[in-house]
Specification:
By secondary structure, the protein is α/β, with parallel strands linked by helices. The protein is built from 16 helices and 21 strands. The longest helix has 25 residues.
Amino acid sequence: MTTTYTLSKASPAKTRADAVVVGVLQSDKGPVLAPGGEDVGAAFGRKLRPMLSSLGVTGKAGEAVRVPTAGTLNAPVLLLVGLGANVDRVSVRRAAGVAARTVRNDASVALALPADDADLVAAATAGFRLGGYTFTTYRSESKDDSPADLVVLSPLARDEAVRTAFDEARVVADAVATTRDWVNEPPGQFTPELFADAVTAGHARLTKGRGAPQVTLEVMDQDRLAQLGCGGILGVGAGSDAPPRLVKISYEPPAATTHLALVGKGITFDSGGLTIKPSSSMGTMKSDMAGAAAVIQATFAIAALGLPIRVTTWAPMAENMVSGSSIRPGDVLTIRGGRTVEVLNTDAEGRLVLADALVLAGEEEPDLVVDVATLTGHMVLALGDKVCGVLGTDDVVEQVLDAGRRAGEAAWPMPIPEEMSERIRSSKVADLAQHDWVRWGGGLYAAAFLREFTEGRPWAHLDIAGPSFNSGGPFGDWTSGGTGFGVATLVELARALATPDADPAGSGD
Ligand code: BES
Ligand code: MN
Ligand code: ZN
């Protein structure tokens, strides 16, 4: 069932619902009810403390305890969710995500987490939507047990800015959820062609009806890619029976003054090609299109929000497979614009498809370029599976890091050492060497290779190989499988670029 979301100023003690959710904070004096829970605390009165201690409630993040209210509140169940030691956007979003998974059998839920500003209301709303995310397309019994009604309680529910934040949070969270859907699709069911079809369907939905945003979509097939000279995309796609595609999306609102180009890696399955991956590394490689999914869904969300910024998005899609028509180590590919690349490792395919797309993006002379890619396992070794690496020109790297902080997505800067460029020029047969067998700093080498195709433009590269896919169990608003990482950061980046005089000081937390 799709959940209906409403925003209300009502008291959690008086609200009629199957369950009321309140936050618990860890403090020196033990667990305390978080802001938003005052009326619930008052209703329980002196019984609250002994109840918390006898239930073993600590307020630790991830904790969820169901309590029967026995008439104390208008709801029969009180759900206490841990916030950890602090109230901030991330702790509230994660607690709301935990709550969403705990209230599954309740038809109506009232969320009374800390919500005394617009950012916290947005965090609670998005966290609930995403924590309750499920992917049931391929389950024979796919019962959706999410609540029919969710009421987000906030003392500022009548405030215009808070209402806007509440509406916008759902737009962005829906884009994140669709990104997860796309990543979770089985790779045989999501070839480049089928991925492009899904984008076409999403575009049709977005642009339908009165007042819908104007967004244009172009899907390029192999013939068109050959005309354009996209040897990288065609080369990587050559080993697969499923031909490659390039998707271009343009959103150009009249009020825009800045032009942002987005590029996303869309490898629908990465077997490694002839430089084949070991089985243990191949199992999650349906997620190698997460960058393309993120830039496309971010673009749709930016358009749906009507942000006054021009966005052009490029998503090269290919399947990296093993066959008699695969590219070989030693082959030379000609990238759009004429530069030649010696392929030395067919598993370093992302940079090949991105090279074509970066050149095409640059031909329109955007003010800045941001690419998002599940590019290297090296970045996962360096930063783990919850943090993305950001590399590029200093200005755009800073802007992306700021946007990540506002979005609550962890991002960390990484350098592109100058000497990497020499190694990239070390091919004995072509202009550039796609790879060398020095393993150290492989994520930086990959970024240095991409930089060759940016012509010195303001640019940032987000290596999301780690955070794009959650191989473990649910964590806060993250569920297993695709995470939708990057969408929220890109929307925040677009927001900042669209309103450059807005106070960036309000951004940190
Ligand atoms: N898609 C992989 C990177 C990846 C690794 C994504 C782990 C998600 C999780 C990429 O195409 C790849 O295979 N990279 C190689 C680069 C190497 C050949 C320079 C890698 O990580 O080993
Ligand atoms: Mn690869
Ligand atoms: Zn890959």
